[in-house]
Write a sequence for this structure.
């Protein structure tokens, strides 16, 4: 009888300690997979790190790491609970379930929740890579027995019944942009990139949502000059406005015919009138994108384009400076 009780106690202690160790790892890895720097993860994976490649592959499947961690943690806590019950039963303690809950709850809370989460939060860049093999092993085991598929299927069914799908609404581009924005915020928070770099990168990511119609200067606010402008007038315009490029109209402001660079006029020693330096208007639709406009102006070697409506009417103008400011922010006149 005593040998049986001793064996039961030993089995209980093994289950209790084993369950708590497993719960410690699962809880820590749950925090580690969230806090690990994704930019450094990519760099490590590309440089050939096996642990980084393993972790990147796992994180590439949304929901899988969390499913594995939650399943593993519940199984580990159940194992620890069973171990505590065995220990108390071997000692012939009454109301073992109640005593087990009372004794195990603070132990699990402190040593299997608070401690590992804080530890992995502070040292996640080391510990997450060190123990990612354990997470991968658990994933394979739980997948083989069908637990991962079962949990994901239940979640999908619940969301479907609730009127939502597993894949949230929105285009793939929007989802990818949101993911990149999250990486940038994480990189800035961890010090991998500066705030300025983060802002510029976010602007680049969002360029696809900005059209010329949003970046242009409306025609009624644009500085336009008459086709018959004189050199003295050009000099005065340059002095008063500070920028050298102006739209040129003929007869009325609605009839834009080209662009004029004041520097070309003032540096001309031949005495040619400003009209000789007017270049044909580059016209782009208001729905065109920023990158498209930059490429067009680069190919045409022009610094200004005129933005047109769907009816072909000129509604504004945009310079290379305006387009670049959509990426780097406000610039001084050039």
């Amino acid at each position: 009888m005593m040998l049986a009780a001793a064996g039961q106690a030993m089995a209980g202690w093994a289950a209790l300690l084993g369950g708590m160790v497993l719960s410690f790892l699962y809880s820590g890895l749950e925090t580690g997979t969230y806090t690990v720097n994704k930019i450094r993860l990519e760099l490590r994976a590309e440089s050939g790190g096996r642990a980084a490649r393993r972790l990147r592959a796992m994180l590439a499947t949304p929901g899988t790491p969390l499913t594995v961690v939650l399943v593993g943690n519940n199984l580990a806590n159940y194992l620890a609970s069973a171990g505590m019950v065995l220990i108390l039963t071997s000692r012939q303690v009454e109301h073992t379930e109640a005593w087990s809950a009372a004794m195990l709850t603070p132990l699990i809370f402190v040593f299997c929740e608070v401690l590992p989460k804080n530890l992995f939060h502070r040292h996640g860049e080391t510990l997450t890579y060190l123990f990612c093999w354990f997470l991968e092993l658990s994933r394979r085991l739980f997948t083989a027995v069908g637990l991962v598929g079962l949990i994901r299927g239940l979640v999908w069914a619940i969301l479907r019944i609730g009127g939502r799908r597993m894949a949230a609404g929105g285009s793939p581009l929007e989802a990818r942009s949101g993911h990149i924005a999250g990486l940038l915020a994480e990189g800035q928070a961890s010090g991998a990139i500066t705030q300025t770099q983060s802002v510029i990168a976010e602007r680049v990511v969002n360029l696809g949502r900005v059209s010329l119609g949003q970046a242009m200067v409306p025609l009624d606010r644009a500085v336009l000059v008459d086709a018959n402008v004189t050199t003295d007038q050009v000099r005065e315009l340059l002095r008063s406005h500070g920028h050298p490029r102006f739209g040129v109209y003929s007869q009325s402001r609605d009839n834009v015919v080209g662009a004029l660079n004041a520097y070309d006029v003032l540096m001309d020693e031949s005495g040619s009138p400003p009209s000789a330096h007017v270049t044909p208007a580059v016209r782009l639709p208001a729905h065109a994108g920023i990158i498209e406009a930059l490429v067009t102006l680069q190919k045409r070697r022009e610094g200004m384009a005129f933005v047109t409506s769907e009816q072909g009417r000129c509604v504004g103008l945009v310079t290379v400076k305006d387009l670049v400011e959509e990426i780097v922010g406000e610039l001084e006149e050039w």
About this structure: The CA atoms of residues 48 and 178 lie 27 Å apart. The chain has two domains: 2-167, 212-328. The two ends are 94 Å apart (CA to CA).
